[in-house]
Design goal:
This protein is of the alpha/beta class. About 25% of the residues lie in helices and about 25% in strands. It is built from seven helices and 19 strands. It has helices at about 15-25, 60-75, 125-130, 140, 155-165, 185-195, 290-310, and strands at about 5-10, 35, 50, 60, 80, 85-90, 95-100, 105-110, 115-120, 135, 150-155, 175, 200, 205-210, 215-220, 230, 235-240, 240-245, 275. The strands form five sheets. Strands 1, 2, 5, 6, 7, 8 and 19 form a seven-stranded mixed beta sheet that branches. A five-stranded parallel beta sheet has the order 10-17-11-12-13, with helices on one face. A three-stranded antiparallel beta sheet has the order 14-15-16. α1 packs parallel to α7 (about 290-310) and α5 (about 155-165) runs parallel beside α6 (about 185-195).
Length: about 325
């Protein structure tokens, strides 16, 4: 194997976690190699206004924010490649990864920042109105719908959390539950039921999100009676879960039932020495750009310490 294909730190995935890990690793002299994956910049590339990230007092467009992150990582010498990693082998002291073009790379440390993807209903109108009233994150976008009626789709803990959060900002929240009961934990169900401005629509499924340039309502139907109706809302929040982008690590790293990578509490360390996980690939609780960046920092610092302890640097 040529030494040209062997690096101290290889980062899989971009977004706040990957780019922050790259900044810290590069400043530590690790000369990181970052593979962006299929969606350079992650979920923020399909996000319009970001107003809750420190340092942007006037807000920033998601793609611009990721461009800023990328430039900062490159400024310190990060080698950024617009490629996808499709296979890994974490046996041995030096880890192996393969690009979609079949190139084999060796790395003393690997930082995983592959993120997670929101699950969607699959409606054309949902896709068309994304960022124009359709969202998968109430904490990110709920602020824009203060004083307006909104709808939340889902029956699990995620939907219950989104609905109760929005209920503090909006006069009315319509919770659309596909079954005649919620899958959410009892404590979360109790919070929903206690909120006077949350109306639960049981056995309800979405047929279309209405509106041309922005959300104006949602057309729903009762899956027991077949009755259709329209609910006037300005925001439509899909809360049916997220899927971490971790399939290529199955069999190599510990995951929970949903596929989120497990790390040693208080660190970014996985069960494999020299492999670290950050961002939404291991965080199913907060899923924010700022927390992803924080774990990216942790991963890079843990990688540097590992390399020092192994007398590699």
């Amino acid at each position: 194997m040529s030494t040209a294909n062997k690096v101290l730190c290889l980062i899989i995935g971009s977004g706040p976690a990957g780019y922050t890990a790259a900044v810290y690793a590069a400043r530590a002299g690790l000369k990181p190699l970052l593979f962006t994956g299929q969606e350079p910049g992650g979920q923020l590339m399909i996000t319009t206004d970001v107003e809750n990230y420190p340092g942007y007092p006037d807000g920033v467009m998601g793609p611009q924010m990721m461009e800023d992150f990328r430039k900062q990582a490159e400024r310190f010498g990060t080698d950024i490649r617009m490629e996808l990693i499709t296979k890994v082998d974490f046996t041995g002291a030096v880890h192996k990864v393969w690009t979609e073009a079949g190139e084999e790379m060796h790395a003393h440390t690997v930082v995983i920042s592959t993120g997670a993807s929101a699950k969607w209903l699959g409606l054309e109108s949902e896709k068309r109105l994304a960022n124009h009233g359709v969202s998968a994150c109430a904490v990110c976008d709920g602020f824009f719908f203060r004083g307006q009626e909104v709808a939340v789709v889902g029956g699990g803990d995620t939907a219950a959390e989104e609905a109760t959060y929005l209920a503090k900002l909006c006069p009315k929240v319509h919770l659309l539950v596909r079954r005649d009961e919620m899958r959410a934990s009892k404590i979360m169900q109790d919070r929903v039921l206690k909120a006077e401005n949350i109306e639960i629509h049981w056995n309800t499924e979405t047929k279309e999100v209405l509106g041309d340039q922005e959300v104006e309502g949602v057309q729903v139907y009762n899956n027991k009676t077949g009755e259709e109706s329209t609910i006037a809302v300005k925001g439509f929040f899909v809360a049916i879960g997220h899927k971490p982008n971790t399939d290529i690590f199955k069999g190599w790293l510990d995951m929970d039932d949903a596929g989120y990578l497990k790390t040693v509490p208080g660190t970014a360390k996985t069960k494999v020495s020299g492999v670290f996980a950050s961002g939404d690939a291991q965080d199913k609780v907060y899923r924010q750009a700022v927390t992803a960046a924080g774990t990216g920092c942790m991963a890079a610092l843990d990688a540097e310490r590992y390399l020092t302890e192994q007398d590699i640097i």
